[in-house]
Amino acid sequence: MMAPSPEPAGFEAVARFYDAHHGRLQDDIPALLRYARRCGGPVLDLGAGTGRLTLPLARAGYPVVGIESAAAMLSIARQRVEAAGLADRVELIQADFRSFQLDRAFGLAWCGYNGFLHLHEQDEQLAALRCWRRHLRPGGVLVIDVENPRLERLAALDGSLELSARWQDAETGHTVQAFYAGWVSLADQVQELELLYDEILADGTVRRTATRFVLHILFRRELALLLELAGFGAVTWHGDYDLSPWEADSPRLLAAATA
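User: That's the sequence. What structure does it adopt?
Assistant: Structure tokens below.
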């Protein structure tokens, strides 16, 4: 049963922890670059966050536009782009990725690691997909990368707090511990995740930062229908970042849909 919760605080609350906790993910970058080589630029990074995917694209020579709604995340991304000397290839825009409007067309649009799951209702899912399709040139490709739902894992989420990661902050020297807890409502096709970041200060004091996310549980046939309704054509389905074909027990669900 889904635990009651306040309005999710989202990424603004935890932006400064994001790179240390999630920024180490690099498994998806080779697949992203393979699609960029196949489709050509410019590339649209949907839900760009702190620039985890924007930067490797720019380093590979592609013009990139990153769309991100959280100002705190975007601020970090801008600092990283400037520090890397890539400002001439990157444009970062604060906007709702369901409804932005740009006056250019892209060869590839990429909605990275579970970003699409933050859209819970069909109307907002379709609004986003139609917006993204409008920004692709004919024959351009949208790739959506989400977790492939495995019911046995989802059913085991009962709100228990688990340690996810532990590291030392490079700037403050503080030890940071990341915990998460999850609840699921299969009837509503949502999972709620609470993230807790505990900073252990020099005097032993613990300072906690918390946020919650609600994620849609998305199945392949549902995503196929959404893409069709949004006007996309042929879809290639991958089950992992090696771009192997999707199977029921694949770890990831990647849809590469042609505009």
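The two ends are 39 Å apart (CA to CA).
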